Amino acid sequence: MPARPRTLHFNLFLHDTGHHEASWRLPGADPTSNLSLAAHQHLARVAEDAKFDSIFLADSPVLWSDPGRRPSGKLEPTVLLAALAVSTSRIGLIGTASTSYNEPYNLARRFASLDHLSGGRAGWNIVTTAGEGAARNFGLDDQPLHRARYERADEFLDVATKLWDSWSDDAVVADKASGVHALGSHVRPAGHEGEFFRVAGPLNVPRSPQGYPLLVQAGSSEDGKEFAARWAEAVFTAQPTLEESQAFYADLKRRAGAVGRDPDGVVVLPGIVPVIGETEAEARELDAQLDRLIAPQYALTTLARTLKVDPHRLSLDEPLPLDLPDEDEIEGAKSRRTLIVDWARRDRLTVRELIGKLGGGRGHRTFTGTAVQVADTIQHYFENGAADGFNIMPAVLPSGLEAFASQVVPILQERGLFRTEYEGTTLREHYGLARPRNRHDDGAGVPELGRVTAGVA
Amino acid sequence: MPARPRTLHFNLFLHDTGHHEASWRLPGADPTSNLSLAAHQHLARVAEDAKFDSIFLADSPVLWSDPGRRPSGKLEPTVLLAALAVSTSRIGLIGTASTSYNEPYNLARRFASLDHLSGGRAGWNIVTTAGEGAARNFGLDDQPLHRARYERADEFLDVATKLWDSWSDDAVVADKASGVHALGSHVRPAGHEGEFFRVAGPLNVPRSPQGYPLLVQAGSSEDGKEFAARWAEAVFTAQPTLEESQAFYADLKRRAGAVGRDPDGVVVLPGIVPVIGETEAEARELDAQLDRLIAPQYALTTLARTLKVDPHRLSLDEPLPLDLPDEDEIEGAKSRRTLIVDWARRDRLTVRELIGKLGGGRGHRTFTGTAVQVADTIQHYFENGAADGFNIMPAVLPSGLEAFASQVVPILQERGLFRTEYEGTTLREHYGLARPRNRHDDGAGVPELGRVTAGVA
């Protein structure tokens, strides 16, 4: 049987009025869409009509930015995605949740529940949650060390997968005649005793359609990439240039191979901010219009917090100070800080210019141009070892998504690079990834996460 | 303005194929409805068409019973209710969550999110979660002591209400011209430092339509009743007779008054299991049919666990042993155990007979008869100081709900005892309860939970 042709994958990164921090100030924007079910339903449906693989919600259990700056309240992802599951039928539903500030039993249960009620469309973006702000909402004075957070995350995944495997796929027999609903011998304890967790199990929900939710990850630090190589099936990443994307892509596939996984079982999805115009000039003007709406009083404070410097040391029309704290001294958003500093120095940006670029894409690559130009760039990345698909982060929502869906997607479909219909029903099927085997059902120990090869589903 | 006439309130207690443990074995039952979104949507819509105040999901973070006995896997309530919010428009959505095995920040966030996306229809049934099974899923060897669980629950509610009040109702201004989305001075830390929790806040979601979700509680122990008097706005209770319902009702209203609350601000809802037939004989035969389907091998084990005795000490055709452990030695399901033992001894039941009665109503009152008989009993309770409404627990679902909705509800509507249309849009409005004031918005300290009086909403 011939190998299935390699095609693109698209995830829509939902973010109320758009990823540009000033998008809520545009004349047509609904500035309370962050709390609106209807606004989220619309975005999910547009993405589903365009045959996107999935939608995605970021999250952190803390009020992340100054509430003045932009819409800052957010609905909790598993709850919001459950509502969106009812409003859609095929698109995948990926929610962020923290391994540092949740208990494995509760979180494994919620994702299994979402997977059941969506018919196998749940995905979990696994984060370890940097920052003392979140820590202080959970009884801590400061965040756990970077390394300790990843150690806990590893054990968290170990517990969660044990719980998701605690019911065999054939445990429920529902035999009315004998009065036996499930086979007790096919429902097993988790029996986990580790450094961070002791969890008896079994889970109180049977194994879900996908076995496990799709496991997604986005950390780009050394610990983050090692974690992704071990666990992630889809990886979001912020890479500002083609060359950096290619390097990240090759590195991650190599790391996955090094731990014995099929490199094709890890789908790499760089984030891009498409800004689409009828002409390139129109697209650039939309970009500039947004940057002019950024309120520097908030952006300066946020930048200073990210860089861990006193805000008074930053001047809008000067470059960054030279004596910033070293990377090793910084816990938390490790690689993001490095990326920002490197970028500002390489392009000799003033603080004001840096704020403009961060406000638009937050370090992700902005593709500004006509629909054909954007499609060409996507194809170029895809065919040159930089991406298996993209995490689409429109600067303005819903208009930026509508433009991408109606103008860019058809071009890629015509070129045979993107699906015109869903072939499967589950999120894993959209990404061409296998359903994990249950460790108890074949005696093979921990199941392998891997890619579906043609003819073997 | 004349006082609003006092009318009944109905909550539907959802429970897959019904509250009778053998209901899944009936010929028409869908034995996997526990995991079916469609089955839950149908039940929610029937209840909404009948103008019920709310639907309700019980929960515990543990596999509660032998998986052979009946459908035992359950979808997590906040996730399932979010999906049902999309499938309904007016009915309230009450979910159970544990104060012992959750973090206040996460849970306050999820209920606020559910309240936002349902337009003010969220309710939280607050439980402290008895049993070592749940404890062992969260790193403990045994459950915390009964008293300690309630002390933590009290502090949990203190933290949660601080978080729900952390955004003033008018904090979001969304001023596009000035670029200010929310007023920083109207978003305040929680600043909680207590025995069980330290939580900085603020919450990362603005104050929700109801301010707080409706606060519901069902513990009937001494600690549970004191907790209900302090916090609960609706109380579920299992009372096997009219006299016991009257005593509970009077006691709870007195306790609420004793802590300075309006007794009418606590709605008391005894659980009833209606079994409706064309004739009384038909109803009784349905009851008996269900009892014959109970598989004693599972029920005996469950009863022994509840009573904390060795299962081998229970014989199906003998009464309970006389030397059961004293109440004081039992942590956990305290009042439920007392109720069961008292009932078995008073009615001189054999273990088999006791199992039959527990399998049907689990200690709740079964109303068996024609629709008129059931309506008469409801009215009698309501007009004689035993109930403000009922927690409806059909033995068989959906048929028992459909019978109640189509036969009993119209009789009560005709008698002017139950609404024929929703008057409000929020869950609190259905129950005639006020929206809590924000402690920061009027300088009055902790807001009073209370009943809406006529003309003052």
TrEMBL record, chains A, B:
A GO molecular-function annotation: alkanesulfonate monooxygenase activity
First-level EC class: oxidoreductase
EC number(s) given by UniProt: 1.14.14.5
Coiled-coil stretches noted in the UniProt entry, renumbered to this chain: none
Pfam family for this entry, one: Bac_luciferase
Binding site for FMN: 59, 96, 146, 150, 220-221
Domain of life: Bacteria
Keyword line: Flavoprotein, FMN, Monooxygenase, Oxidoreductase
Ranges that cross the membrane: none
Residue ranges of every copy of the Luciferase-like domain listed in the record: 26-386
PANTHER family, A to Z: ALKANESULFONATE MONOOXYGENASE-RELATED, C2H2 FINGER DOMAIN TRANSCRIPTION FACTOR (EUROFUNG)-RELATED
Family the UniProt entry places it in: Belongs to the NtaA/SnaA/DszA monooxygenase family.
Name of protein: Alkanesulfonate monooxygenase
Lineage of origin: Bacteria, Bacillati, Actinomycetota, Actinomycetes, Micrococcales
